[in-house]
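Look over what follows to help learners.
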Amino acid sequence: MGLTSSLVSAGSLGKLLSVKRNTKTQPCVAAVSLQQRRPLVIRLRIATFDGKERLQIKQDTGIVHLNLIQDEEHDLITVDSNATFPLYISVNMLLVSVIDQASAP
């Protein structure tokens, strides 16, 4: 499964971070999973610091459970409009493989 993330404008609210499942219908350099649904657990954190290395803004999605279908995109978080670059972004991701009981040992 290829996953991509994007930072797109969300109007005056700031920037939107999302995750998208790519399949054969779109170019992807990574391996592609052909399962109908792909279980995914993800947590995203964003932080910005001032010039004295003090934390200015901290955002956290918490743990998000997704079941992405082919080429589905899911918005994760809108970055605070007061956030300044550089943004420090941390992503924890767990891909869950479904084992077919008929083929399991």
The mean pLDDT is 79. The chain has no helices and seven strands. The radius of gyration is 17 Å.
